[in-house]
Amino acid sequence: MISEPIAVFITAPNREQARVLAETLVTNGLAACVQILPEIESVYRWQGAIERQPEVLLIAKTTRDKFTELETEVRRIHTYETPEIVALAITEGSAPYLEWLIDSVRKD
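Given the sequence above, the corresponding structure tokens read:
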């Protein structure tokens, strides 16, 4: 059975932590590719207050069957109490790219 490709959005407090997360996920076969986007501003409610913080956004391409392992690894090394780890289905894509993505995270 071929797993469905997904894109996982993860925020980090800075580029250094983003790089650690990206390297760890790719090295451990939990993501085929992780893109690190430059600083974004997040506005959110936390413990009853509205917060505004600069963050770095990661987009990890993986498969649905790798999500639980990916989430566990992100939570293990992330500095946030409640890190953003949100998966979206990839419903369409270039066939060669999606094949590469799936092959990159498949266990042999």
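The CA atoms of residues 32 and 100 lie 8 Å apart. Try to locate this feature in the token string yourself.
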